[in-house]
Amino acid sequence: MLSVHPELDEKDLRLLHGLQVAPRIPWAEAARILGTTASSETARWVKLRERGLAWITAHPGGSYRRVTLALVEVDCLPGARRAVVDAICADPRAVTVEESTRGRDLLLTVITENLAALTRYVLDDLEALPGVARQRTFVATAVHRHGSHWRLDALSPAEESAFQTVSRRGSPSALSTPPRDAWPLIEALATDGRATAADLARLTDRNPATVRRQLGRLLTSDLLSFRCELASEVSGWTVSSTWTALVEPADHRKTVEALATMPELRMCISTTGDVNLAMTFWTRSPHDMLRIERTLGEHLPWLRIRDNAINLRTPKRMGWLLDDSGRATGRIIPPSALVAY
């Protein structure tokens, strides 16, 4: 089980774990699983969100077949890092910005509507940005795991299973066509991933009945992923590191399946370039990186690690601007890959 941060108690962690599994679960159902009341869980969530310790957001995702995702390494000119970070954070195409060690200044997660839009961003706009010395782009060819899959260890197996049941209940048996003019709804859900149809109707000045229909189609369209995010300082997993590796095509599937069993794994994608696998691990200390390296060497001896680097600071995560401790500032720049919808 997790050690409790001074600002959180076990009830906070259990709720957060449940919301990682089912971000839009009704409070009454969450309370039933947790053995509390809807009003207490609502109040608990409001307190966590107001302090910037946790937030729920929607972002371009689903199966990631409707968008293009890439990891972009950026080197900055001497003395220009701060200005470059500020400029990149203001761009809705760079959804996550991490300040890194070892051979790169910044690591960006970029999501665009297609490959042509990615090309314009990295070759035209990014390289023309004052203070950028060079960039290296790794286009994702498949997304195997992302932040929506990462879990705290706060619920019992039975409780997690109950949240999973609620989450699966909302999964579509068949994908729907996204509603027309969906961007205002997407933008609002990026700000508050738990927004109801009534909330969205009020925020977008649309007819409530119309929004209910549109929201239902949007949620079953494979456009969005929802995630409950935590400030890293309170999650207990305070060290983020990104690794790149090379694996032979014949070993690819079993490698991805084995990596998915590691609780520290936050992200795993197949990429283009001189490496074909990129991973992000969240660990409790830098010393855990050696343990992960040993685990990979023992259980996946065919996996050739090319590089690993600690991400020192994350000023932006999936559109949300964060302070130096990783707390949400309340400011968000919704990822723009779906603006055409």
Structural summary, described in words:
It contains 12 helices and 12 strands. It is α+β, with helices and mostly antiparallel strands and 341 residues long. It has a domain of 130 residues. The strands form 2 sheets. The chain has an 8-stranded antiparallel barrel. A two-stranded antiparallel ribbon has the order 1-6. The longest helix is centred in the first third of the chain and has 13 residues.
In short:
This protein is 35% helix and 28% strand.
Tags for this entry?
341 residues; alpha+beta; eight-stranded antiparallel beta barrel; two-stranded antiparallel sheet; 28% strand
Low-confidence segments, given as residue ranges, are: none
Written as H for each helix and E for each strand, in order along the chain, the element string is HHHEEHEEHEHHHHEHEHEEHEEE
Q: How many β-strand stretches?
A: 12
Radius of gyration: 20 Å
Morphology call: globular
Strand order of the largest sheet: 2-4-3-10-7-9-8-5
Helix/strand class = alpha+beta
- Bin the strand percentage: 25-35%
Largest sheet: 8 strands, antiparallel, barrel
Helix content bin: 25-40%
Terminal residue distance: 42 Å
- Mean pLDDT across the residues is 94
* Tally of helical runs: 12
